[in-house]
Design a protein that fits this description.
The protein has one domain: NAD(P)-binding Rossmann-like Domain (Rossmann fold), CATH 3.40.50.720. The chain is built from ten helices and ten strands. The protein has helices spanning 10-21, 36-44, 54-59, 73-80, 82-85, 115-122, 137-141, 159-172, 188-192, 195-205, and strands spanning 2-6, 25-30, 49-53, 63-66, 89-92, 97-98, 106-107, 127-131, 152-156, 179-183. The strands form two sheets. An eight-stranded mixed sheet has the order 3-2-1-4-5-8-9-10, with helices on both faces. Strand 1 (2-6), helix 1 and strand 2 (25-30) form a beta-alpha-beta unit.
Length: 219
């Protein structure tokens, strides 16, 4: 597929690199076409890597990944253009974290709704799927870094979009048994609110790979 990854930070570049590695053509999108991180990334990753503005990236994409910081995600998708998102799956991996009062940050969910729901309301012709926001970016693209069972969640209103995202996750190395479809996009509220727990665990465990897992009793 042609995939746009919006956001040139560590998360965006890590996802973009993995997507190229598993066979996709990826355009890394940023606010300006001359973004140094995007330009360098594209130069380092061969003919299937490109860079451009958010709108450039989204226009030619079959699927769009939102890897921008959560509090600027709506603005980034607005810059990408509603017409460039129409009918496309938008994979939202961001967290709406407010660092204005220091660490740990606060999860921002106006009126109790998730960022993913806000994006879906703002771009109703897109198909927003929330996933991968409950782990660090190294684990996102290489779940085998953690031994034993652990879980990645999916939330979204469109079943076919979630199936497409699940297939992408499997290409990253996630086993079907590790992928838990929570249901419609309202369930993204819960996974975004897992961030305080994740940050508390990070404070205890330090900079090591870890993830959350759902363990079932033997039937």
């Amino acid at each position: 597929m042609n995939i746009a990854v919006l956001g040139t930070g560590e998360v965006g570049r890590r996802l973009a690199t993995k997507l190229v590695a598993v066979g996709h053509h990826v355009t890394l999108g940023s606010r300006t076409a001359d973004n140094e991180a995007a330009t360098t990334w594209a130069a380092d990753h061969g003919p299937d890597a490109a860079h451009g503005t958010f709108a450039d990236a989204a226009a030619g994409a079959d699927l769009v990944v939102n890897a921008t910081p959560g509090l600027v995600s709506f603005a980034a998708l607005t810059a990408a253009g509603a017409e460039n998102l129409r009918g496309k799956t938008v994979v939202d991996v961001s967290n709406p974290l407010d660092f204005s009062t220091g660490f740990p940050p606060r999860v921002v969910q106006p009126d109790g709704a998730s960022l993913a729901e806000e994006l879906q309301r703002g771009f109703p012709e897109a198909r927003v799927v929330k996933t991968l926001n409950t782990m660090n970016n190294a684990v996102m693209v290489d779940p085998g870094r953690i031994k034993g069972h652990h879980t990645v969640f999916l939330s979204g209103d469109d079943a076919s979009a979630k199936a497409d995202v699940a297939a992408l996750l499997e290409s990253f190395g996630w086993a079907p048994a590790q992928i838990t479809d929570l249901g419609d996009l309202t369930t993204a509220r819960g996974v975004e609110q897992l961030m305080p727990l994740w940050l508390s665990l990070y404070g205890v465990l330090g900079p090591v790979d870890f993830n959350l897992g759902v363990a079932l009793a033997e039937q």
